[in-house]
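Hey all, quick one. A colleague (J.T.) asked me to put the magnesium ion job into the tracker so the inputs and the structure tokens live in one place instead of scattered across chat threads. No bug as far as I know, just bookkeeping. Sequence used:
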Amino acid sequence: MRAAEILRMGGLVAFPTETVYGLGADAYNAAAVAKVFEAKGRPRFDPLIIHIAAVETLTNAADLSQLTKETKQKLYLLAEKFWPGPLSLVLPKSDKIPGIATAGLSTAAFRIPGHDAALKLIALSGGAVAAPSANPFGALSPTRAEYVRDKLGEKVDIILDGGAARVGVESTVLDITGDSVKILRPGGTPKEAIEKLIGAVEDGSAAAEGVFVSPGQSKSHYAPKTPLKVFSREEMINLLYEKGSAFLFFDGSARDEWLKAQTADTPAKEAIKVLSESGSTAEAAACFFETLHELDNCNTVNGRSLEKGLEISCIYAQFAPQEGLGAAINDRLRRAGA
Ligand code: TXA
Ligand code: MG
């Protein structure tokens, strides 16, 4: 596999995962990891996720000797249940992982992605791939290879195309090293599923604590270029259509109620989007970034427009219910609107 060889030589490979596309470098190679920060324009204080292909690799990349017996138990319970999958676990890192990958932290976030091409790439390379999402820093996350090509094309040695990402939002980042288990970033593994397995977990995201816990929690992350405002379902269906605005509904019934209440000229169809007709949070997550990309590409800032010359200057979005993958969607919406 050529991509794995590129990683072994210290190059950059963009690859599909079940959540979003990653921009990978050999996690054991500091110079290679530095290139990731450079390509993304990512500040050095924002640590990367270390992708592995097998739990056994943890003994090489993490320092499990620092864990208490209880934490180890939690680790293996979670790994068995959710790996491969959209869950990143914060653990003490081993000396082999260079400090640049973890922004100088003594811990690193690890996960086994649920995607065959990614697993093959990792296994054939050095066994640990440091990768953030493959987008310029602060921009919308890429759920398709074309977005990576568009935004980072020349800066990457090779882009593996695995089609549309299945989950659509990034992994849940979970810190199991402290006395209480904390969700540092809500994501593709719902809080409810984690709690069912290991009991209560705390919301340790920046939104909850008002502090800078997980560096990637900076407020204006995941931002589209078009101004975006988020509303409750109730508020959303009371908004009046105006030309130049796009409406991003969570579910079909909210859109229908809203449509009924419109009095002015017929809203432009292209500017009205629904994440899930039936109101499924998983379905909504899968098309969330893609739909935002689509609307954002029609804004007045970058000059492109939808068919019929429609240009969007503002996006009004509806919060998802705060359950299942809705928590991850709402987190991204809040930050896109910040
Ligand atoms: O689904 C995903 O997680 C995707 C795919 C490519 O795996 N990756 C991703 O990476 O979203 P990135 O770099 O965009 O986000 C990594 C998140 C950030 O919020 C970062 O602060 C947090 O993980 N993180 C990484 N290492 C950490 C650590 N040692 N302690 C706390 N948070 C950490
Ligand atoms: Mg990211």
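Adding what we noticed when we looked at it: The longest strand covers residues 245-251. The radius of gyration is 20 Å.
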